[in-house]
Amino acid sequence: MRRLGTAIALLLLLAYTQGCVPHSTAETEVGIRTKKLALFGEKGVENKIYAPGSTYFFAPFVNDWHTLDTKLQNLEMTFQKKRGDRSTRDDLLFKTIDGNDIGLDVIIAYRIDPDQAFRIIQYGARDNIRLKDKIVRTIARSKPRDIFGELKTEEFYVAEKREAQAVRAKEKLQEIFTPMGVIVERVLTKDYRFNQAYQKAIEDKKIADQLVEKNRSSQHATTEEYLRKLEEAKGEVNKMVADIDGEFLKAKIEVDAYYEKQKLLAEAIMAEGIAEAKGIREMNEAMASAGGEALVKLQIAEALQGKKIILLPVSEGGMNLKTTNINDLINTIGLKSLGGE
Prior knowledge:
Elements: H1 2-18, E1 21-24, E2 29-35, E3 44-45, E4 55-58, E5 63-69, E6 73-77, E7 92-95, E8 101-112, H2 117-122, H3 128-140, H4 143-148, H5 159-177, E9 182-194, H6 196-287, H7 290-304, H8 326-333, H9 335-340
Antiparallel strand pairs: 1-4, 2-3, 2-5, 6-8, 7-8, 8-9
């Protein structure tokens, strides 16, 4: 019996080592081996990763082989049919914190951690499809609902609010997926929608807000136009003031120049008058002396030089033309003959 047991063990070892079949991994895949029967070591999923782009040999029947693609994957849950991962409506449906129903399109971008890929096999996902459908999808449809449901209805219109909740959702999902060997790269939100009645009320409010904003913009434009015209009027007034100031300064300069000219002219006239008066005064002083009398006589003599002098009779202290016969007088003094000559 001992020999028989030894023979059976040798036969099994020979089959285990000589009957190996090849197992390969693609460029973006990692391989995971599961030992169903182990002569050496423990059986089960190996805590070991087989590198991408390689080929390995294992005995059949006693080993299982799985490959997982480690490139980036997208789980798209959207309202539109025949788009994303489902051919029907697949968006997240939940209530906002203030009680309104909402549908939100979400994309979960994730990838497998190559060094921890064996954990995915341990959690029961034997390939990428099962990982997406059974694990990632299940968790990604539950936890984000709670996080985005913390927003108020009006806050969904604020992109920064949605982005902040998306970051929180990524962090929470990463906490859950880390032990499974999954890395969440990003949580993206796209379109969102409310129920029809509430959507209509929101659209009406948007229209009203747009009208308010339009009126506000119109008021602002009117104010700006008024300010522009006010500035233009100020500019015109300043121009007029500048022109008037210029004319005033020009007139002032001309008046000042005329004043200076007239002042100089008056000073010259005054100086000339003073000089002339001084000359007259000196002449008067000279004429009042004995030399002045002689000068007067000399000038009288010069004036009478070459002149004919006629002596007339004088009576009663002067000549009386009323009683004097001029003709007889002329005949008497012989002036008639002189007149003929």
